[in-house]
Every structure is written in C-alpha cells, then in structure tokens.
Design brief:
The chain is of the alpha/beta class. 39% of the residues lie in helices and 19% in strands. The two termini are 19 Å apart. It binds ligand FO1. Catalyzes the transfer of the phosphoenolpyruvate moiety from enoylpyruvoyl-2-diphospho-5'-guanosine (EPPG) to 7,8-didemethyl-8-hydroxy-5-deazariboflavin (FO) with the formation of dehydro coenzyme F420-0 and GMP.
Length: 319
C-alpha cells in the first residue's frame, strides 16, 4: 500500500512511528514542512525534516521531541562566549553536524530534496522523506511588540516568545513562488491513501498546502484523505497550535480544524473520544468522522491511531 503523509514536527513524527508499526510493509512517503526552516550561524536548519529523520532513525531526544539524544552544547556555549547569538535556539553539537552537511551540500548546488535523501541514507528512517519544496519558504508571524507591529521568524515566535503574544498573522514567506519538490506530486498521484497526522494545521500542514499545486493534487488524487485532530478537548495536545489557529480565525476545536481543511480536501477525520460530541458536526460538513483515542502516549498508541485512520480510509473508499 502506498501512503503519503504530510508531516510537520513532533506530532507528525510520532504518528509516523506508529504508522510504520501498524503497516510495516507499506510504502510511506512523507512530504515534510520546511516553513520552520531557519538560517543560523550561516547554517540552514530544517527542524521539521530533522525531527522526522531523527525520530524514525532512532536519534531523537525523546522527551523534547526535537534535537538529538545524548546531546552536548559546547559549540553553543562557545558561540555565546563570543557574544554571537541568538542564544534562544538550542542547537546541540551532534545536531550541528547535520546542519553543516546540509549547508555544505546546498552550497555545492544540491537541492534540499537531494540533501535530505543523502542525510536519510545515514538515518534510514524507513520512509521516503521529501521536503515540500526545494525553494526557500520561511514562516513569519506578525506580532505587536512594545507597541510596534512587526513580523518575526516563526522560530523566534515559537521558541523565544513561547507564543506568549497573539499571532496577528502567519505568513509562509516565499510559498507563492515555491514549486513542489521533485517527487511530491508524483507521490500524491500514485498514493492509495493520504494522511494528515496530528501536526499543526496552520504552520505545518497549512504551510505544505500553501505550496501551489499540492492542495490541488491532493484534492484531485481520487483516493481517501484522512486526518487526525491535533486538538483534543478544545486544546492542542502539544505545542501552541491554538495561538496560530486564532491568527487564521479558526477556533481550537477538533471540529473547527476539520472544517478549516474542508470537505474538498478531507474525506475522513478522527477526533478523540472526549470530542465524540463533535462527530455529528464534522459529518454535517461532509467529512466522515469517528471518535477514537488520539493520545500518542507511546508507539503502540500511535500504531492504534494509524490503524484507525487506515480503517476510516477504507470505509471512505467503500462508500
Ligand atoms: N524548540 C524549542 O522549544 N526550543 C529550542 O531551543 C529548540 C531548538 C531546536 C533545534 C533544532 C531543531 O530541529 C528544533 C528545535 N526546536 C526547539 C523545535 C522547533 O522549534 C520545533 O520542532 C518546530 O519548528 C515546530 O514543530
């Protein structure tokens, strides 16, 4: 079975670990969000691609959900000693090697998709990881700081400010000019099922859908598209998705996120059992809906969720 998954960071990566366990023989292609990318110390950092690669490759810092396990921060300390910032983004020594290799290959003329394939050669994530585009897209957030309205990089909003101020707008800068990376549209057109994991619907999945051609390809794929709510009991399971949902005028509920994606894109939607009351509202929006446990407490829980999503996809296909 050929499965295409649109993935952001931690939620997407943990879901993928469950999906691999649920259907070990499936051919899984992950279209990764690159809107979180940031250039630091002359290096290109791709947080969402690295989180998928490290999580599935066995190198992730499990508690954090990002960065490497067994990490040290000597380079970061030395940069700070030189007064070279920013110091609010925790790049570890092992992680630096990934960004050095990536930046070196890009400097040699390789597109990000080729670089990602090369990095995955080492990590063997067990899925094909393709960036949504080889072009530069960086999400910026419009905020009001010290009485001034300004646009800051998503990472500064997310990590330095901890999303403590309202996001007035979220803009994937460069998305309009971006083209899907090689293999993205082909994977979508050849998929038997397409899944939206519980990633951030605005800054992760929303950013991937903002690359011209990707939303249309999914809507026209003619195969079941099933998503899993990142919102449980009216609040994000992790992260601060509610802050960016507000920026696009979407209430932080499982039903509102399904409606936000729309029945033109989504055929099925899983909500957590605590949100069973919203099944009717989602079905009224033309999207098949089931209430199942959605807390990814461990890989087995994630595998059960993945099976539920695939079952719903089959129910949609049979309808
Ligand atoms: N998230 C944090 O909350 N604090 C950090 O210092 C931090 C550093 C970091 C370094 C590399 C990387 O790949 C991810 C990192 N993240 C950090 C997570 C990152 O902000 C998020 O994973 C995504 O951008 C949102 O999904």
């Amino acid at each position: 079975m050929r499965i295409v998954v649109l993935a952001g960071g931690i939620g997407g990566a943990r879901f993928l670990r469950g999906l691999k366990r649920a259907v070990p023989d499936a051919d899984i292609t992950v279209i990764g969000n690159t809107g979180d990318d940031i250039h630091l110390f002359g290096l290109k950092v791709c947080p969402d691609l690295d989180t998928v690669m490290y999580t599935l490759g066995g190198g992730i810092n499990e508690e954090q959900g990002w960065g490497r396990a067994d990490e040290t921060f000597h380079v970061k300390e030395e940069l700070a000693a030189y007064g070279v910032g920013p110091d609010w983004f925790g790049l570890g020594d092992r992680d630096f090697a990934t960004h050095i290799v990536r930046t070196q290959m890009i400097g040699a003329g390789y597109p990000l998709s080729a670089v990602t394939e090369a990095l995955c050669d080492r990590w063997q994530p067990g899925v094909r990881l393709i960036p949504m585009t080889d072009d530069r897209v960086e999400t910026h957030v419009a905020v009001e700081l010290d009485g001034q309205r300004k646009a800051i990089h998503f990472q500064e909003y997310w990590v330095r400010l901890r999303a403590s101020v309202p996001a007035e707008a979220v803009v994937p800068v460069g998305a309009e000019q971006a083209k899907p990376a090689p293999g993205v549209l082909e994977a979508i057109s050849e998929a038997d099922v397409i899944l939206f994991p519980p990633s951030n619907p605005v800054v992760s999945i929303g950013t991937i859908l903002a690359v011209p051609g990707i939303r249309e390809a999914i809507a026209d794929a003619g195969v079941p598209v099933v998503g899993l709510s990142p919102i449980v009991g009216d609040k994000p399971v992790r992260g601060m998705a509610d802050k960016v949902l507000a920026a696009v005028g979407v209430e932080a509920t499982a039903a509102a996120v399904a409606e936000h994606y729309g029945s033109g894109l989504l055929d099925g939607w899983l909500v957590d059992t605590v949100d069973a009351g919203s099944v009717e509202r989602v079905e009224a929006a033309g999207i098949r809906c089931r209430a199942v446990p959605l807390m990814m407490t461990d890989a087995d829980a994630a595998a059960r969720m993945a099976r539920e999503a695939l079952d719903l996809a089959e129910a949609v296909r049979a309808a």
